[in-house]
Specification:
Elements lengths: L1 E5 L7 H16 L5 H10 L8 E7 L2 E9 L11 E7 L8 H15 L4 E6 L4 H7 L3 E8 L2 E9 L1
Antiparallel strand pairs: 1-2, 2-3, 3-4, 5-7, 6-7
Helix pairs in contact: 1-2
Length: 155
Amino acid sequence: MISITYLKYHPEIIPTLANMWHELLGKIWVPDVSIEKTMQRFHDHCNDSNLPLTLIALDNDKPVGMCSLRETDGIRPDLMPWLGSLVVGKAHQKQGIARLLMDAIKNKAKDMAFETCYLLTFDPTLPNYYQRHGWSKIGMDFLKGHDVTVMQTDL
């Protein structure tokens, strides 16, 4: 059974999540970011009422995914907040866990009185996925040597 909760309540799983993030996203799109730096960033996300924060997906207490909400994702400081670090372990992909995490982050942003949420994706195949879940492309930008698609959703 999948449950969604705050990383704040499970800081002991930060190394597992940092490795998952690094394997599935980091080493592909931002290889200059070390696992140690990633772990520190996730320690900074151990919040439940202020940004940045991270929600985690647990399958019988085993971490299988995560998603963050933060003030910025490295571009467009005029836009806030940003969904970031949405990742689900390979063995648990295509089971709706990413959707659960995304919906939980959007609900949290709405609870925090935000009206819009933003994301960026390095992967050019993902905008179609996000559009199926209510996100709209608002432009292109450039981050860490890559073109990125910038998207938004109303909350």
